[in-house]
Design goal:
Elements lengths: L1 H30 L4 H24 L8 H23 L3 H8 L2 H12 L6 H19 L12 H22 L7 H22 L9 H22 L4 H8 L2 H13 L5 H24 L1
Helix pairs in contact: 1-2, 1-3, 1-9, 1-10, 1-11, 2-3, 2-8, 2-9, 3-7, 3-8, 4-7, 4-11, 4-12, 5-6, 5-7, 5-12, 6-12
């Protein structure tokens, strides 16, 4: 039975990564027509509707009152992270954007040293060096004739700032405690992310074309389903195993990029992505050794 539970957990985790990678692909597609703020607002608004239905029919546990400040902080940071990432992903290949986003665990290790006065281990130092080298290889080789056409410096800046914002989110979450069902927490974060992204979304609002309706619905559904599968999967497998499965997001990014956007990853992007994955693996191993 435990083997079956573990197998189902692995399947759910893979489904979660595939669904959340689908959000990235849809954000890139919608970003060609709408502002990144509008894409963020629509993504979270539709996800919130799906999560409301799921909570009402399946979980039947609504968020507890009294934690609005914590929910608002999570939503605010999520809106910033998604806005940066969606802006960056609209201007660069999917695999490049996701590879840069995967530097988040390394940023978290650096922030742990700065915020919590943690002593950096040799593994953390090695991870930082590898991540910087990998990200630099991906960014600096664009437009040289070896790794495809150049990418806007604004898109690159957003792509690098998004994982930093995500790391700050994780640090903020580490300093607060969770008192609700994980999906109820996700609903509140999603609602507040939609609220905080709404002002800029409405300032830059463009009426979506009718043919974009299915993409708007699908990006919200993929976001909600991805998180539900993630929570269910983590209940069946160790977080360390999920961390390995999460690296398959690079495979999904390459697949979606090739199928939907005709993107062929360059050799330097693949090498840089490999260095970043290695950095994350070293950082995670170092953190486990210290715990």
């Amino acid at each position: 039975m435990s083997s079956l539970t573990r197998t189902s957990g692995v399947g759910m985790a893979i489904g979660a990564v595939a669904s959340l990678s689908g959000v990235d692909a849809l954000a890139k597609s919608l970003g060609a027509e709408l502002s990144s703020f509008q894409v963020v607002f629509l993504r979270y608004m539709v996800s919130a509707l799906f999560l409301c239905v799921f909570l009402r029919l399946i979980v039947r546990r609504w968020p507890r009152p009294g934690y609005l400040k914590a929910h608002a902080l999570r939503g605010f940071l999520a809106a910033i992270t998604a806005s940066l990432f969606f802006f960056g992903i609209a201007g660069m290949p999917l695999l490049m954007a996701l590879a840069l986003a995967m530097t988040a665990p390394v940023f978290m290790a650096v922030l742990g040293v700065i915020v919590f006065r943690e002593t950096p281990s040799s593994a953390t130092t090695a991870a930082i060096v590898l991540a910087v080298f990998g990200a630099g290889l991906i960014v600096l080789m664009r437009g040289t004739g070896l790794a495809g056409p150049p990418v806007s410096p604004f898109a690159i800046a957003a792509g690098l700032l998004a994982p930093l914002a995500y790391a700050l989110t994780a640090i903020a979450m580490k300093q607060s405690s969770a008192h609700d069902h994980p999906i109820a927490l996700s609903l509140m974060q999603t609602v507040f992310a939609a609220v905080f992204s709404a002002p800029m979304a409405f300032i830059l609002w463009q009426m979506p074309a009718a043919e974009l309706g299915w993409q708007i619905g699908l990006i919200g559904l993929c976001g909600a389903v991805g998180f539900i599968l993630l929570i269910a999967g983590l209940g069946r497998i160790p977080a360390s195993l999920y961390a390995i499965i999460d690296y398959t997001g690079l495979v999904w990014a390459a697949f979606y990029g090739y199928v939907f956007f005709n993107e062929v990853p360059s050799v330097t992007t693949l090498i840089g992505a490999g260095l970043i994955v290695a950095a994350c693996a070293i950082s995670a191993h170092g953190q486990r050794s210290l715990s």
